[in-house]
Amino acid sequence: TGEWDVDVVVVGAGVTGLTAAYRLHQHGRSVVVLEARDRVGGRLLTEERDGVRLEVGGQWVSPDQTALLGLLDELGLETYERYRAGASLYIGRDGERRQFTGDAMPVSESTAREMDRLTVELDRLAAQMDPLSPWEHPDAEALDRVTFAAWLEQQTDDVEARDNIGLYIGPAMITKPTHAFSALTAVLMASSAGGFSHLLDADFILDRRVAGGLQNVPLELAARLGDRVRLGSPVTRIAWDDAGVEVHTADAVHRAGRAILAVPPTLVSRVTFEPPLPAVHQQMRQHQSFGLVLKLHLTYATPFWRDHGLSGTGFSPYETVHELYDNTNEDLATAGDARGTLVGFVSDVRADELLALSAAERREQVLASVARYLGEQALDPEAYYESPWMAEEWTAGAYATSFDVGSLTRYGPHLRERVGPLAFASSDVAGLGFQHVDGAIRMGEAAAED
Ligand code: FAD
């Protein structure tokens, strides 16, 4: 490696950084991975809380996520199907709770027709897009200058159809209100998952789980990298020129030919660059921001909903908890554990409202919402846990980052642009697998290849 300590310094030991480092290592390049936290995995974390193993961050795998499925295979990790037997629940605009099976939601005939029409239109737009370059979509300019909420209003007067279609991309995916991102970003989300119909289909998009938890992916990668991964090492400063980089932490300087910043775009700006990054890079990252979602786990003595023929799945754009699933651990390690766990999500402005309350009030509101889906038995969980991502210094939101209105066309072409020896990668700049672990792997591999 000549005068360098290593060929490449990777900043961040999330899936993106660890994939990049592992591929470089496999190809005989020397690497060091510097991670701010005292653990690897970034937005993936499997943790025991009140005696229950919980997936606090990302967890589900869908059949289109071939980069993730391939890596799971390579690392020898097993998957199992998410529990889904029984009827699902929907709470409509009229406040009524209705059961349904399959993907035909129990809405009025006219609302169902409008939802079908919007689905066909979003699938059509997504099919016209290469998710790696949404700005090249034939209608990119027009779609990027309207909010997704305004676009939905242009398409239909049916409020419940708009609220439901909006739910699957807004609260459920981008985790921002539909008036805070563009229609082009909505189409990107659909296109990155192989089409909007996939987002509507929980059996597809939330198909499988990883035995032991999805954090096993970064844990296995880190095990293969050994002491090349340095924990508790926030990178504060990077000096660079065309010949290489000097990457500074509080107590060390690592000199290398290249650096890969495998951190969310919002955290790139926390590093001081000498010389500063080009203007367009500094501007671009001010237009990207994290969404906000609370991931809630509720564990009960038994999965009581199953006794009532219910899958535990529930949706409603009108509820505090807009999505609900059975998240009982079903892998071998938990065989014999009779407890049942639900996972629920509270997103964007509803999350703001909850976070303004005391812990006790939050819990009460969440349980009341879950009880509107599953009945009074839901009011008394043995364990209750709220994910802390929005308050964590090295993430500061969830699930991921996205552009404000108009910025995907304006800055998108610079998203994955290298600056001299500095490459930028994360799930949040991915095409396929955008904002998902699959995209993190694709971006890590692309950065290593580069
Ligand atoms: P991160 O995981 O954010 O990794 C970046 C790393 O960089 C972190 O470890 C951070 O500590 C470190 N870092 C930051 N700044 C510095 C610095 N200056 N110096 C050193 N280190 C630094 N995806 C799915 O595929 N399926 C799901 O079901 C799913 N559900 C999710 C649920 C939640 C609650 C959340 C939060 C995310 C979910 N996701 C899901 C998204 C998925 O977790 C992320 O897309 C993916 O893990 C991001 O990986 P990454 O490596 O790009 O970024």
From TrEMBL:
It comes from Nocardioides nanhaiensis. This is NAD(P)/FAD-dependent oxidoreductase. Its cofactor is FAD. Pfam families: Amino_oxidase (PF01593). PANTHER family: AMINE OXIDASE, AMINE OXIDASE [FLAVIN-CONTAINING] B. InterPro entries: Amino_oxidase, FAD/NAD-bd_sf, Flavin_amine_oxidase, Flavin_MAO. Keywords: Oxidoreductase. Belongs to the flavin monoamine oxidase family. The keyword Hydrolase does not apply. The keyword Metal-binding does not apply. Residues 16-450 form the Amine oxidase domain.
